Amino acid sequence: MRLPVTVDEYREGLRRFLRAAENKRARLVIFPELAGVMLAPPLLGDFRSSLLLRADLGRRRSASPWQKLVGAVAGGAAGMLKANYQTGMAGLLDVAAAQLWDRYVEVFGGLAKEFGVTLVAPSAYLPDPFDGVIRNLTVVFGPDGAQLGTQAKVILSAADERFCQPGSNWEVIHTEAGALGIMIGSDVLFPEVGRLLAFQGAEALITLAAATSQADYNKLRAGALARMQDNQLLAACAFLVGQDAFDPSRTTTYLGKSAIFAPQELTPRFNGVLVEMGDFTSEGVLTAEWEFADLRALWEKNDARLRHQFNASQASQILATIYRQLQTTPRLEDQGGAARGAAPAAKPVITLDDLPVIASITSRWPPYSATGDDSLPVEEPVTWSAIDATAGAPPAADPRYEEETDEMDALDDAGR
Predict the structure, then answer these.
(1) CA–CA separation, 393 vs 294, rounded Å?
(2) What are the C-alpha distances in Å from 163 to residues 49, 88, 100, 182, 237?
(3) What pairing do the DSSP bridges indicate for beta strands 273-276 and 259-261?
(4) For residues 311 and 309, what is the distance between their CA atoms, to the nearest angstrom?
(5) Helices (H), 156-275
(6) What's the rounded Cα separation, in Å, for the pair 407 and 231?
(7) Element containing residue 182 per DSSP (H, E)
(8) pLDDT band (50, 70, 90) for residue 69
(9) CA-to-CA distance for 211 and 63, rounded, in angstroms?
């Protein structure tokens, strides 16, 4: 994440990555979560935003002495005026969201066509083309620059909630590079999301992420690996890196190791990883080959053949029932006095006699053998009558064992 002064500067920065991907003959290019918000600063024409841009320009390593001087003065003025990009972004989304959407489509659709690749554009806070609601949204563009589909983030973070509303579903996007199921940020942490996309025919799960701590990064990475292995799919995870320019305190840094995954059976070290960045904060371009033929062969010969052994229709009905029950279960804060420290209401006591009897079986252990030389494992000497093995007579009753339980007696008395 770095703030461009102009849209052309931002576009040229993206071309650096695409040229590297082109040299590797990539057909599918994936950018990370929130990298698309860097389109917003060039569109902010107010005085405070211009001060922030000049201050950021002066902090760059490539800045000239004059730019550093102007940047220092602009940074001081921006601090006095309490300028920050959060306020500017909120204002832009309020009055010029359509302009931001047009610029986003122009930039990323144009780059997809220029380089002839299927491009999963970085997510940004954009108006959803279906209803105009602002969401954390990504768009997939085809090699001809056409829009193939969109995916909105459903499970929002606290930072997202300042700008947008959650999406409502996940749908597979079909491309020349495969059927893609896209998960943004925390969406990857929920097993149901990966399974839903797998049942819709996804061949690869794409995760766009922006983690602000190693703990968050590790959770998202583990989630991506789990969703991939659970559903026997290919996967990739793109992480944003760099200082969060939209944090007024300038103390938040994005980090993570982008990676390309495949089911463990299809990776050299059987760990699910084809290639992964070696550093948490470095930019880079990773490439790997996905073998779709090997993936389909795995679906047929794997021990757990999800697509043959798992009844999707039955599973969806069971899950729907469970979720409805969870939604109607009262939460602690909804239970009145319990949340305010009052003593909870007494629960009715259920005794053993109140429980239904499903089955009741008793037997000696260990069982007697045909030769009759087995004996019960007891500490004191056995004093009851001996076993007549030669005559085939049953052993005498052990007074310490009951042949039937009280429940069985009750059933016999009732004539059942």
Answers:
(1) 65
(2) 18, 11, 14, 21, 24
(3) antiparallel
(4) 6
(5) 158-161, 191-199, 214-231
(6) 47
(7) strand 178-184
(8) confident
(9) 28
Neighbours of 204 (CB within 10 A): 26
CB of 280 closer than 8 Å to CB of 259 = no
Torsion of CA 159, 164, 165, 170, to 10 degrees: -90
Tens-place pLDDT, residues 21-59: 999 999 999 999 999 999 988 887 654 566 666 667 666
Backbone angles phi, psi at 78, to 5 degrees: -65, -35
* pLDDT reading at 384 higher than 50: no
Can you list the pairs that 368-374 forms with residues at least 24 positions away whose Cβ atoms lie under 8 Å?
368/395
CA 260 to chain centre: 15
Question: If we measure between CA atoms, which residue out of 191, 239, 236, 193 comes closest to residue 212?
Answer: 239
What is d(CA 380, CA 339) in angstroms, rounded to the nearest whole number?
56
Q: How far apart are CA 108 and CA 140, in angstroms?
A: 9
With H, G, I as helix, E, B as strand and everything else as coil, classify residue 125. Answer: strand
Q: What is the CA radius of gyration of the chain?
A: 32
Q: What is the pLDDT of residue 304?
A: 66
| Whole-number percent of the chain with pLDDT over 90 | 51
Q: How many CA atoms lie within 13 A of 31 on its CB side?
A: 28
Q: Encode pLDDT of 163-219 as tens digits.
A: 999 999 999 999 999 999 999 999 999 999 999 999 899 999 999 999 999 999 999
